[in-house]
């Protein structure tokens, strides 16, 4: 009887430990998938031969921006930042903007590309695309809104 209980106990413990290993493999696979999704795509903002990093979000709108690059910027300025009209409309998923910070890159209405020059809260509908390095925003200001976004 003791041998039977010992065998059952060992088999039960072995069964539990193999289930944990399987779950662990599944968790590792899920972690890899999450890491792949979190790897951001980047572009470059060129202003007066200097290059600045543009980090894109993982969304269809940002992918649309990437697909139409290079984009020549000849931006106008308003109270929110720099903006320019795009030749090709981007896919949009407009949501209320909320809190914006300097360097936020977004599109309004599919055709108007914006670069925020200050932190503020907006109550307008936009689609977020990513961020531009703050030094790049400063360089764009010095060049009166002229630059290029490249892949």
TrEMBL record:
Ranges of residues in domain Cyclophilin-like:
45-145
Q: Which InterPro entries match?
A: Cyclophilin-like, Cyclophilin-like_dom_sf
Q: What's the protein name?
A: Cyclophilin-like domain-containing protein
Range of residues in the leader sequence: none
The cross-references to Gene3D superfamilies, in alphabetical order and at most eight, read:
2.40.100.20
């Amino acid at each position: 009887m003791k041998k039977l209980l010992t065998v059952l106990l060992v088999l039960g413990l072995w069964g539990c430990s193999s289930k944990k290993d399987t779950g662990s493999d599944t968790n590792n696979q899920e972690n890899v998938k999450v890491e792949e999704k979190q790897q951001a795509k980047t572009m470059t903002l060129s202003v007066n031969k200097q290059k600045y990093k543009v980090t894109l979000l993982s969304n269809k709108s940002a992918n649309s921006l990437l697909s139409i690059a290079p984009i020549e910027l000849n931006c106008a300025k308003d109270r929110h930042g720099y903006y320019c009209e795009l030749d090709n409309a981007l896919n949009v998923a407009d949501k209320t903007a909320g809190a914006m910070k300097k360097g936020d890159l977004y599109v309004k209405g599919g055709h108007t590309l914006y670069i925020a020059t200050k932190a503020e809260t907006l109550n307008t509908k936009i689609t977020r695309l990513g961020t531009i390095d703050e030094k790049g925003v400063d360089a764009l200001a010095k060049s009166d809104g002229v630059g290029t976004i490249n892949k």
